[in-house]
Amino acid sequence: MSKLKIERGVSRTERVKLQVSIEQSLAHDIELMAQWSDNEKNYIVNELLRFALEQATEFQGHKRSLSGKPAASVSAPQKIPGSSAAGGTKSALTGQPQGGI
After folding, report:
1. How many structural domains compose the chain?
2. Of 22, 23, 47, nearest to 34 (Cα)?
3. Which residue blocks in 9-56 are alpha helix, DSSP H?
4. DSSP three-state, residue 94
5. Which range marks the domain in which residue 27 is found?
6. Does residue 7 lie in a domain region?
7. Calpha distance 77→13 (Å, rounded)
8. What is the pTM of this model?
9. Rounded Cα gap, residues 54 and 67, in angstroms
10. What is the mean pLDDT of residues 23-50?
């Protein structure tokens, strides 16, 4: 099993907005992890989701089995030419700027 690694004080990047409701206990833990690691909550949520998706072997198999549709990697945000000079990234799927949660 892989280990989740949260880096301390990484640079802040733009993200795609995803509006969801989560349990209060999860929100509290995310806030606590953000404070502990000196990162924004958005970064913590992205890393947790990236880690979970990488560990979901059944989903990864399904993703690979899709024919004719290239699967986007969840391993790291991808830089796309034309992204903002402030170090922003754009979605590898839509080319749109990525915003916060």
Report:
1. 1
2. 47
3. 24-37, 41-55
4. coil
5. 15-101
6. no
7. 9
8. 0.54
9. 20
10. 94
Asked whether residue 89 carries a pLDDT value surpassing 60, the answer given is no
d(CA 61, CA 47): 21
Distance (Å, rounded) from C-alpha 13 to C-alpha 71?
22
Q: Please report the pLDDT score of residue 96 as a whole number.
A: 42
Looking up tokens 């989701």, which residue turns up? 49
7 within 8 A of 81, measured Cβ to Cβ: no
Q: Are 101 and 45 in contact (CB under 8 A)?
A: yes
What is the rounded CA–CA span in Å between residue 86 and residue 69? 31
Q: Is 6 among the domain residues?
A: no
Count CB-CB contacts under 10 A for residue 46: 21
Question: CA-CA distance, 19 to 55, in Å (whole number)?
Answer: 23
- Could you identify the residue written with the tokens 């024919």? 67
Task: Specify the pLDDT at position 99.
Answer: 46
| Residue 12 token pair | 């802040």
